[in-house]
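Consider one such protein record:
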Amino acid sequence: MATQNGSKLDPQTLIRSCASFLACRDFNACRELAHSIPRLDTNIIVQVDQILTIVHVLCAAERRISDTNLDWYSILRLRREDSANRDLVRQQFKDLMRLLNPNTNKFPFADDALMRVREGWFVISDSARRASFDREIDEEMKKGASFWTMCPYCWYLHEYERKYEDCTFRCGNCGKTFHGVEVKPPTKDMMVEGKEQYYCYQVSLPCRYPVDENIRDSNGGIGSQSNGKRRMRIKTLARRVKMKGFIEANSDDTDPDVEQEGVL
């Protein structure tokens, strides 16, 4: 690699620059510079491979499959279809452990990358844990195929294919157009049992307020106070539950809102 004045930089100088980028977690700059370093001898080759391995593992660890699992296949540099090959998984694990060995790899975050690799091996090397992880991947892929959005005018939920995200839609309920911004899908506790409906809100608000201490007599005059005590009256507002239906994409169904009221 040449400088602006035409002189070439020493590979060790470039490796130190890579380490600086790595310490700042600037993975893109570190990777680009590492790939440009001339592999002149075995020592340089090993150091470059160590740097690139750290970058790869930490970048792969930024992708989370679920709340409990990272993308272990990417971290271990494996394809999902090859994961049942135990010999291949073991060899890949050994190669990564060799490159991330804390006794020889002194670059920043080598220990973090090593921990992620060990965690990946713990999941992928066990058939039961791997099967559970594969199911999580399949579930996430299904979720990623569509998204939920809500009409801001009538609060009806709509589900569309993911490719239509951020498009403009016409609500099948109120007929107004709105921007398709993704919202969280309805959870089980929101669902109305036995119906394609969900709860929008449910409010129960107790109100406490003082009662006038001056008690009027039967003739409308002001009588004596109630033994000098301050009385309070408690009133609970009506429980209001508003339910909405689902509108499928390109559907003309317009199920009406259902309101239920009752005194708690």
Remarks:
- Residues 145-207+231-244 form one domain.
- The chain has two domains: 11-142, 145-207+231-244.
